[in-house]
Structures are given as C-alpha cells and as structure tokens.
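Data availability (excerpt). The following record was deposited with the supplementary files.
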Amino acid sequence: MPATSASPSPEEAASNLLAWLVKRGLLYACRLVLVPARRGSDALASIGWSGGGYLPLLCALTRSWEDRFDAQVVAVFGSELYVSTARPPVEAEHANLLALEHVLSTADNIVDDPPTPFPE
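Predicted structure:
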C-alpha cells in the first residue's frame, strides 16, 4: 500500500494502538517481554506463541503484513494478537484480500460469526 503524507509512521501507528489498548484496560494483566528479533513476526516464532493458529503460517502472514502495510506486532496475550498498520488497504480489492487472509489463518474464529463473503 502506498504511503501518503497523511499516513502515520509505523511507530506512530503502533503507539496509537498501544494507547488505545491501555485506555481500554486491555493490558492490565500483560507483561513486557523483550525478544531478540528483528521483526515482530520473528518474535512470535521466538516465543513459540500458540494463539490457536498454525504458527509458521501466522509468522509468514504477519511478515507479509509488515512488508505490505508497515504493520507491527504491538501486543500478544492469550489467543489475541494486536497488530498496528501505518498503511491499511484503501481499495476494496486489497481489503478483500486481507479479509480472506484473516479467514484462512483463523477460520475457526470468524467464518460463522459473522458470515464471510468467502464461502468456499
């Protein structure tokens, strides 16, 4: 996705998401963990995160989001993964592709509720 002058930097997007999580009290039981990794996607593999999906697929997917959307892993707890993005998709075609990636990676979480436009 192309960056625009209105796009936040990846660091600003991550900071905004973190502030949102803190404001809503979603991080009260979390602990800060420093992981020796170049990318958040690599950190998921390093800690052996088992959020319910197939870890190699989730790491590859988040790596792809890092490259395409300037995404950053911000928080991981339980089965939840919070990822910020500085360059979200703006065209329907790209947003549908991202939605399909979500469905394929976590189909047990969102296929039936709500119904998706990807029945096959």
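Summary of structural features: The mean pLDDT is 80.
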